[in-house]
Amino acid sequence: MPLPPAPTKRAALLSPDAHDAPARSSHGRSGRRSSDRRTEQSGSNGPQPLELFDRHAEEAGGAIEPAPLPPKAKTPARPAPEPAIQVETRARVQAPIPAPQATPRPKRSKSNGPAKLFVLDTNVLLHDPMCLFRFEEHDIFLPMIVLEELDGHKKGTTEVARNGRQTSRTLDALAGAQGADIGKGLKLDTTGHRAAGGKLFFQTAPLDYTLPTSLPQGKADNQILGVVQALRDLYAHDAPGRPKQEVVLVSKDINMRVKARALGLAADDYQNDKTLEDGDLLYAGSLALPADFWTRQSKTVESWQSGSSTFYRISGPIVPNLYINQFVYFEAPGEPSMYARVTEIRDKTAVLKTLKDYGSVKNAVWGVNTRNREQNFAMNLLMDPDVDFVTLTGTAGTGKTLMALASGLTQVLDDRRYTEIIMTRATVSVGEDIGFLPGTEEEKMGPWMGALDDNLEFLAKGDGGGAGEWGRAATNELIRSRIKIKSMNFMRGRTFLNKYVIIDEAQNLTPKQMKTLVTRAGPGTKIICMGNLAQIDTPYLTEGSSGLTFAVDKFKGWPHSGHITLARGERSRLADFASEVL
């Protein structure tokens, strides 16, 4: 059917309220108004366009008035095609609108009750100097003894001393802001942190409290508990200029929280530093497709070939759960298996690309073949030049270091993609420290790099072939010349150009240390972070607050990064059994 002469011009002249008129009158001529409109909305034919128009009109602020509009709809021969054109055009305009609806706007509207008053322990300020701005609309109270303890920790070059000095500078900036009044509370958003909507109160007057005689009065922790008890009694009832508030102690000290609860005081841990509450919630990097996946996708899937890879475009409810560079696999008895990686997500469709099989002998990387599904996923990430950041987690013996070294040597010596391998690790000992180590930087790092020596010995043995002793020695010398061992202590300010950087034992890094290392990457550099979250040796670091967990969670979905959790150990049957039972 030919289009009307100028429907676009006429639709542009209509107000948003009038867009519905033809659609509602095109199905009938005379007396069908509100009754037919109800049946059309309840029917299955084309309700979506009308709902889109109604929503648009309401958002525009105009009221929909069906009564005066029918006379406009009596133009012959135009009403039938016009709604189709308008529906199609308006649907395109409305397509991006669901995004604003999906993002719930202010965080503060989600609070169900009045703002609380949080009393911070000193260890919270020393742990995170930005913690003052993490409590949203709630108020913060600092006892005087906390400021005294903060002053005692400001000297030195440790992380705790740096955090103490940063906290002091933050408090000084808040107190020195224009219009600041310590007596009425300092507004936390005056220094540009708009997410903080509460106030900061200092202890400006002595508070009356009585603690059990079993708690020594001279100890700082007990004085903080006394302040919390006094504030709880003070804010238990409404008073002029002082509304009723719940008082909660926030401390990283477990014993402090136990004592507070024993005294009937509310206490909580500082949770903002934890990326995840439970390590089992960590992004795994792979997803198993359901058994009926191909049955559901049989009508909508598209496939095409490009080089040695096959691409599939899929749709359905599984797409919102996918991330870029996430691996998916289909395994079912009696059916061919499929292993692929998500390369593109657009609207409600995703594109899957089949993987290269590094388990085959012809695809061996520096003489190493992958032995299980997750190792093949990891090797595809390690050998992809478009992936700049790779994180590998897994238990002991899953092949993290070996695969990273094998792919690094191949890309440095064979492909000439990178100039050299730089290897570093967190120097956190398992037991007692053995003291100072002699020699240069590399010699000092030598004892920490036993894993590197073990894996290089294996790789050199597998690559030597029948070269004999001289050939193996030359190979070892060549490999050693392209691997540099660096200490993390001297990374600040450096830039790595076209380097292959391996960060081993990354589970012992804090989020701040992880940020320092990853931001050293220059053009053409690839960084691999490896670690076992079950073997954290750094004090006060947990699975939820580890820098490796932080990096995995923040980088998931970025097109140039990938993560995989290695599940099966391949070191030996003894190591596998020990990982399970010990």
Structure characterization notes:
This protein is of the alpha/beta class. It has 20 helices and 18 strands. It has helices spanning 7-13, 20-25, 34-42, 47-59, 81-94, 98-102, 122-127, 144-152, 159-175, 220-234, 254-262, 293-297, 373-382, 400-414, 441-445, 450-464, 468-481, 511-518, 547-555, 573-581, and strands at 117-120, 139-142, 186-187, 199-202, 247-250, 266-268, 286-288, 302-306, 309-315, 327-330, 338-346, 349-354, 389-394, 420-425, 483-485, 499-504, 526-531, 561-566. The strands form 3 sheets. A 6-stranded mixed beta sheet has the order 3-4-2-1-5-6.
Task: Write a compact overview of the structure shown.
By secondary structure, this protein is α/β, with parallel strands linked by helices. It has helices at residues 7-13, 20-25, 34-42, 47-59, 81-94, 98-102, 122-127, 144-152, 159-175, 220-234, 254-262, 293-297, 373-382, 400-414, 441-445, 450-464, 468-481, 511-518, 547-555, 573-581; strands at residues 117-120, 139-142, 186-187, 199-202, 247-250, 266-268, 286-288, 302-306, 309-315, 327-330, 338-346, 349-354, 389-394, 420-425, 483-485, 499-504, 526-531, 561-566.
Shape: globular
Strand order of the largest sheet: 3-4-2-1-5-6
Briefly note the structural class of the backbone: alpha/beta
Count of β-strands:
18
